[in-house]
């Protein structure tokens, strides 16, 4: 028997919508659906697979239970008889976007089992063909035919009533919905019955002139209407007038009407009066348009079908029509097909069987299906499923047939059986353990590889409580994990310890699935894998991380470990204590986004340079963003580890130290030095200028050759220079005080 994945893959190639169900009566869990099924039902596989069939497709609101019972009976038939069951024109309304509305659909449903070599049912396939359009089209044709027959009958009745007396005319005019009129040609006014004003919305007017009526006729219809009317009125031998045209209602909308008039003439044969009836035929026009559309639809359904289809004469067995798909698939042209009988697409040795089937099983109006051999033009023999029903093709009794080539399907079924044998081998030789246990832990089944994997025989495990083999410290936790299946279908159990006969501990990872409602299983399916090496490595890593965290609490370093292959960045406790982040596992992009934008290029160039030149150690200072958005200055020291075979970097370990205070102190010292340099420059340059002037002026005052005017001028300059020198000295003193304050801070 094929695996479910192989079955699903097989059915995905089939254009017919199919759902693959588990035979777990009464639930019938949906195991898989093909793409055609999802397209037909406008659903997603995630909304269907794993759900019970009647949960995924609940009973319609308008279903009294009979339609759902039909599906139940089909499933029961397949489970009991192991043969297909066909349901035709089954109504099931798919849920629409609005809860108040439903998508009304009709289906031809074929339900059949998937059996293994021993005849055991492993899955039930429900193949559904949407025949909504065909069903509705047939119903519309029937309804329209009845409607047209009814209208024709009403027309005859009205024509008879027109011949009655004026008194009966009055009462008929009151009772009928047709617009009865009486046109006095000589006086040129039309008397309309009440129905006219009801239909067309005009106010009642006894003097309705012919010109007023003509103004309501559609302009495009006036020329033909006038010609027809005048021809009738001018011919003394004509008394009846029938015409259809468009007439405008009071709301401005034109509607199609049909008018039947009877002309009364005087002794000279001149028309003096016309009595008639006007009826709305918009519905008939619409029905005719729909009928033409349905004819096109029927043609499209036949000609554009992706499956080969043909029509043949039940008497002569000659082909009457074939679609494009049949011509492509069988290799004959349409002309060649129409010159052949259906016998010629069968191997000659199958002709007696075909003739016998047509005589004994094909009945008018009854659907018939069978699997037969067909012959292509190339001589290739193929296996096909044919489905047919009776139709009328012109004047001939004919049969329409749809053919599905199942040659590849048959090959796939054989491959499925081969795959089932491979599956049994894989179960015995695989590394995964599969077991079925009851809720209390007692084992019902375990795969034969248990002895190879865990060193215990089947006899020592089946019938015994599996929980007794679990480490005491993990046993109660595992039992609680199993109890979760009371609220969900499947659960993944965290690794636990299994103790073998020699006392050796194995770590086991298990997925448990509740299959107690499946009659074939009736327990908890455990899919287990030995993960001892992985768990022990994880415990070692955790031990190292705990050690890192202990170190980080004693230092201001945040230790990190980058797995460059898996792109996984692990941090110790310092990432929380120093920078405020709550998680300890990130990726490279997370670190990249938190390095200051002005620093990231410089840091990555440094690391990239070391990777290229295989330099393991690197050190860099940069700004790193904390969880609150503030930046801290860090000193980051990294160590690169390279793969010994490829030379590529595979891991990088480092320590990040917060040096924010150190950087702030360094910047303060640099600022203080700038102040001192400014004071020194002031003393060296600004003080020298007024002091030099003072020294020069003193020499002028001491010179006995200078007159009093010169000495007076020198004194004024001496006073100005002294004042300038005093201001400069004050500025030097102020800057010295500011530098002293910054130094103290």
Automatic annotation (TrEMBL):
UniProt keyword list: Kinase, Phosphoprotein, Transferase
Record InterPro entries: HisK_dim/P_dom, PAC, PAS, PAS-assoc_C, PAS-like_dom_sf, PAS_4, PAS_fold_3, Sensor_kinase/Photoreceptor
KW Repeat (keyword) present: no
GTP-binding among keywords: no
SMART domains (alphabetical): PAC, PAS
Catalytic activity: ATP + protein L-histidine = ADP + protein N-phospho-L-histidine
EC nos: 2.7.13.3
Residue ranges annotated for the PAC domain, each copy included: 88-143, 241-293, 368-418
Class of enzymatic activity (EC top level): transferase
Record domain PAS: where: 165-236, 294-365, 419-489
Protein name as annotated: histidine kinase
Lineage, uppermost ranks: Bacteria, Pseudomonadati, Bacteroidota, Cytophagia, Cytophagales
């Amino acid at each position: 028997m094929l695996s479910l994945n192989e079955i699903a893959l097989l059915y995905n190639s089939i254009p017919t919508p199919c759902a693959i169900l588990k035979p777990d009566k009464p639930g019938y869990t949906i195991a898989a659906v093909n793409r055609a099924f999802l397209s037909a039902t406008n659903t997603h596989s995630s909304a269907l697979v794993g759900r019970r069939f009647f949960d995924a497709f609940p009973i319609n609101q308008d279903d009294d239970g009979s339609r759902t019972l039909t599906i139940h009976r089909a499933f029961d038939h397949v489970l009991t008889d192991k043969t297909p069951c066909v349901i035709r024109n089954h109504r099931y309304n798919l849920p629409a976007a609005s809860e108040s509305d439903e998508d009304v659909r009709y289906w031809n449903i074929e339900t059949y089992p998937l059996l293994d070599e021993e005849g055991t049912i492993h899955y039930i396939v429900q193949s559904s063909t949407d025949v909504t359009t065909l069903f509705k089209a047939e119903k519309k044709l029937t309804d329209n035919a009845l409607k047209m027959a009814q209208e024709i009958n009403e027309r005859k009745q009205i024509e008879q009533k027109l011949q009655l007396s004026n008194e009966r005319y009055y009462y008929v005019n009151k009772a009928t919905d047709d617009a009865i009129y009486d046109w006095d040609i000589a006086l040129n006014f039309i008397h309309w019955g009440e129905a006219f004003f009801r239909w067309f919305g005009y106010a009642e007017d006894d003097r309705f002139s012919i010109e007023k009526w003509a103004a309501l006729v559609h302009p495009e219809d006036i020329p033909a209407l006038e010609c027809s009317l005048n021809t009738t009125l001018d011919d003394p031998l004509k008394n009846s007038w029938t015409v259809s045209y468009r007439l405008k209602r009071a709301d401005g909308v034109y509607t199609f009407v049909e008018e039947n008039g009877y002309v009364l003439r005087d002794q000279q044969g001149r028309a003096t009066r016309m009595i008639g009836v006007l009826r709305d035929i918009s519905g008939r026009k619409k029905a005719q348009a729909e009928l033409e559309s349905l004819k096109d639809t029927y043609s499209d359904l036949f000609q554009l079908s992706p499956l080969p289809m043909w029509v043949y004469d039940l008497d002569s067995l000659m082909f009457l029509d074939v679609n494009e798909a049949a011509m492509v698939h069988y290799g004959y042209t349409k002309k060649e097909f129409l010159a052949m009988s259906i016998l010629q697409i069968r191997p000659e040795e199958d002709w007696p069987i075909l003739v016998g089937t047509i005589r004994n099983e094909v009945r008018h109006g009854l659907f018939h299906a069978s699997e037969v051999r067909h012959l292509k033009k190339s001589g290739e023999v193929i296996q096909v499923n044919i489905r047919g029903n009776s139709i009328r093709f012109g004047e001939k009794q004919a049969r329409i047939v749809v053919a599905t080539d199942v040659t590849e399907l048959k090959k796939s079924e054989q491959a499925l059986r081969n795959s089932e044998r491979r599956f049994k081998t894989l179960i015995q030789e695989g590394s995964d353990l599969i077991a079925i246990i009851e809720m209390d832990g007692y084992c019902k089944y375990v795969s034969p590889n248990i002895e190879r994997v865990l060193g215990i025989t089947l006899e020592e495990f089946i019938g015994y409580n599996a929980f007794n083999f679990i480490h005491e410290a993990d046993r109660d936790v595992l039992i609680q994990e199993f109890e979760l299946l009371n609220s969900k279908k499947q659960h993944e159990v965290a690794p636990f310890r299994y103790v073998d006969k020699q006392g050796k501990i194995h770590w086991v990872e298990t997925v448990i699935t509740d299959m107690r409602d499946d009659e074939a299983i009736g327990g908890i399916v455990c899919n287990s894998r030995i993960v001892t090496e992985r768990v022990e490595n994880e415990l070692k890593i955790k031990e190292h991380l705990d050690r890192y965290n202990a170190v980080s609490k004693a230092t201001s370093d945040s230790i990190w470990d980058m797995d460059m292959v898996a792109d996984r960045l692990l941090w110790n406790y310092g990432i929380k204590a120093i920078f405020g982040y709550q998680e300890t596992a990130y990726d490279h992009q997370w670190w990249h986004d938190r390095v200051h934008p002005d620093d990231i290029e410089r840091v990555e160039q440094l690391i990239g340079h070391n990777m290229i030149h295989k330099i393991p150690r690197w050190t860099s200072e940069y700004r790193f963003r904390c969880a609150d958005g503030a930046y801290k200055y860090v000193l980051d020291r990294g160590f690169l580890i390279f793969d010994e075979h490829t030379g590529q970097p595979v891991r990088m370990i480092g320590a990040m130290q917060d040096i924010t205070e150190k950087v702030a102190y360094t910047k303060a010292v640099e600022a203080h030095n700038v102040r001192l340099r400014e004071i020194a420059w002031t003393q060296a340059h600004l003080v020298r200028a007024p002091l030099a002037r003072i020294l020069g002026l003193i020499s002028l005052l001491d010179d006995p050759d200078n007159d009093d005017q010169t000495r007076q001028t020198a004194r004024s300059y001496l006073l100005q220079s002294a004042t300038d020198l005093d201001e400069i000295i004050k500025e030097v003193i102020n800057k010295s005080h500011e530098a002293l304050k910054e130094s103290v801070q």
